[in-house]
Amino acid sequence: MYKLLKKSGKVRRGEFTTPHGTIQTPVFMNVGTLAVIKGAVSTMDLKEINCQVELSNTYHLHLRPTDTVVRKMGGLHKFMNWDRPILTDSGGFQVFSLSKMRKIKEEGVYFNSHIDGKKIFMGPEESMQIQSNLASTIAMAFDECIPNPSTKEYVVDSVARTTRWLERCKIEMDRLNSLSDTINNKQMLFGINQGGTYEDIRIEHAKTISKMDLDGYAIGGLAVGESHEEMYRIIDAVVPHLPQDKPIYLMGVGYPSNILEAVSRGVDFFDCVLPARNGRHGNVFTKDGRINMFNAKFELDAGPIDEGCNCPTCKHYTRAYIRHLFKAKEMLAMRLCVLHNLYFYNKLMEDIRDAIDNDCFEEFKAEKLAQWNEGK
């Protein structure tokens, strides 16, 4: 259940109550595709850096260790030792990202495994069954993430099919939640708005799926090649046509500046691989913008990554040491930078919530954008 605590213009501050705890929004979900954050980060670490929600991937976990194994181990929460909310995406993004290895039909999508080429079929029912086996807190509906740009004719057909798939997802989830041996029979379902960069298709689809009374609504198919300006235009168009008493989730976004812009347009949930991926390559976020830990100027730098940061990395290690670890190809370098970046994102969301609570979000946003000077 979503409870709106405060609203200022389009900016929303809320609480989302789930079977695995209450989520304070706006929130950034930390991405652990295979039930782990890449970079040797444990679930105990996630608690230390104030992660509220972990996100895992249906398609990847279906391949390994398989959702059957996870079910036998008691579901994802027990398997990965995490007692807070988990969101699983549906496999729909892999319809986009594995475009050379799949065929889309009305019944679903035929894949070849990216691991061994094995043939796989996933439709709405299969996606719901896998996610029910995983027993995540929130399951995402199975959809097609449309590449940008796409022809209007293709987008119209794809969105209509995504709507039919959503109806099938809802029926199957209701069935699964009614079974006595379902691990999490309170599993929630979020639908996904699609429509490429066509405002009229996006708005019509938002109106259609809003009538289905789902637990939450996502805006999908953005941050896949279009400009940031186009992305903001679509968010502006879609958000007013989604239910305002349910959480709104912008999938796969993004840079800190993108998050600030989307919060100002009414978005509640975010996720992105960016902070962890950048951290593994020595690219870290600070209050003054991004820096590269391979830079020679850090060779004798005795300061932390970000002065004043309270993450486990900044409290204990210097830039000079972290640079040395990267140059020596030591795994600890990745771990320390991923921890820092995820803490940076989680702390940013906490500061955003505080700014909304204190009626100063616009000033906070302007100050941060000026500090980072990202141009992103």
TrEMBL record:
<comment type="function">
    <text>Catalyzes the base-exchange of a guanine (G) residue with the queuine precursor 7-aminomethyl-7-deazaguanine (PreQ1) at position 34 (anticodon wobble position) in tRNAs with GU(N) anticodons (tRNA-Asp, -Asn, -His and -Tyr). Catalysis occurs through a double-displacement mechanism. The nucleophile active site attacks the C1' of nucleotide 34 to detach the guanine base from the RNA, forming a covalent enzyme-RNA intermediate. The proton acceptor active site deprotonates the incoming PreQ1, allowing a nucleophilic attack on the C1' of the ribose to form the product.</text>
</comment>
<feature type="binding site">
    <location>
        <position position="314"/>
    </location>
    <ligand>
        <name>Zn(2+)</name>
    </ligand>
</feature>
<feature type="binding site">
    <location>
        <position position="143"/>
    </location>
    <ligand>
        <name>substrate</name>
    </ligand>
</feature>
<dbReference type="InterPro" id="IPR036511">
    <property type="entry name" value="TGT-like_sf"/>
</dbReference>
<dbReference type="Pfam" id="PF01702">
    <property type="entry name" value="TGT"/>
</dbReference>
<feature type="binding site">
    <location>
        <position position="221"/>
    </location>
    <ligand>
        <name>substrate</name>
    </ligand>
</feature>
<feature type="active site" description="Nucleophile">
    <location>
        <position position="271"/>
    </location>
</feature>
<feature type="binding site">
    <location>
        <position position="309"/>
    </location>
    <ligand>
        <name>Zn(2+)</name>
    </ligand>
</feature>
<keyword id="KW-0328">Glycosyltransferase</keyword>
<feature type="active site" description="Proton acceptor">
    <location>
        <position position="89"/>
    </location>
</feature>
<dbReference type="InterPro" id="IPR050076">
    <property type="entry name" value="ArchSynthase1/Queuine_TRR"/>
</dbReference>
<keyword id="KW-0671">Queuosine biosynthesis</keyword>
<comment type="subunit">
    <text>Homodimer. Within each dimer, one monomer is responsible for RNA recognition and catalysis, while the other monomer binds to the replacement base PreQ1.</text>
</comment>
<protein>
    <recommendedName>
        <fullName>Queuine tRNA-ribosyltransferase</fullName>
        <ecNumber>2.4.2.29</ecNumber>
    </recommendedName>
</protein>
<feature type="binding site">
    <location>
        <position position="311"/>
    </location>
    <ligand>
        <name>Zn(2+)</name>
    </ligand>
</feature>
<dbReference type="GO" id="GO:0046872">
    <property type="term" value="F:metal ion binding"/>
</dbReference>
<comment type="similarity">
    <text>Belongs to the queuine tRNA-ribosyltransferase family.</text>
</comment>
<keyword id="KW-0819">tRNA processing</keyword>
<comment type="pathway">
    <text>tRNA modification; tRNA-queuosine biosynthesis.</text>
</comment>
<keyword id="KW-0808">Transferase</keyword>
<dbReference type="GO" id="GO:0008616">
    <property type="term" value="P:tRNA queuosine(34) biosynthetic process"/>
</dbReference>
<feature type="binding site">
    <location>
        <begin position="89"/>
        <end position="93"/>
    </location>
    <ligand>
        <name>substrate</name>
    </ligand>
</feature>
<dbReference type="InterPro" id="IPR002616">
    <property type="entry name" value="tRNA_ribo_trans-like"/>
</dbReference>
<dbReference type="GO" id="GO:0005829">
    <property type="term" value="C:cytosol"/>
</dbReference>
<dbReference type="GO" id="GO:0008479">
    <property type="term" value="F:tRNA-guanosine(34) queuine transglycosylase activity"/>
</dbReference>
<feature type="binding site">
    <location>
        <position position="194"/>
    </location>
    <ligand>
        <name>substrate</name>
    </ligand>
</feature>
<dbReference type="InterPro" id="IPR004803">
    <property type="entry name" value="TGT"/>
</dbReference>
<feature type="region of interest" description="RNA binding; important for wobble base 34 recognition">
    <location>
        <begin position="276"/>
        <end position="280"/>
    </location>
</feature>
<feature type="binding site">
    <location>
        <position position="340"/>
    </location>
    <ligand>
        <name>Zn(2+)</name>
    </ligand>
</feature>
<keyword id="KW-0862">Zinc</keyword>
<feature type="domain" description="tRNA-guanine(15) transglycosylase-like">
    <location>
        <begin position="11"/>
        <end position="373"/>
    </location>
</feature>
<keyword id="KW-0479">Metal-binding</keyword>
<feature type="region of interest" description="RNA binding">
    <location>
        <begin position="252"/>
        <end position="258"/>
    </location>
</feature>
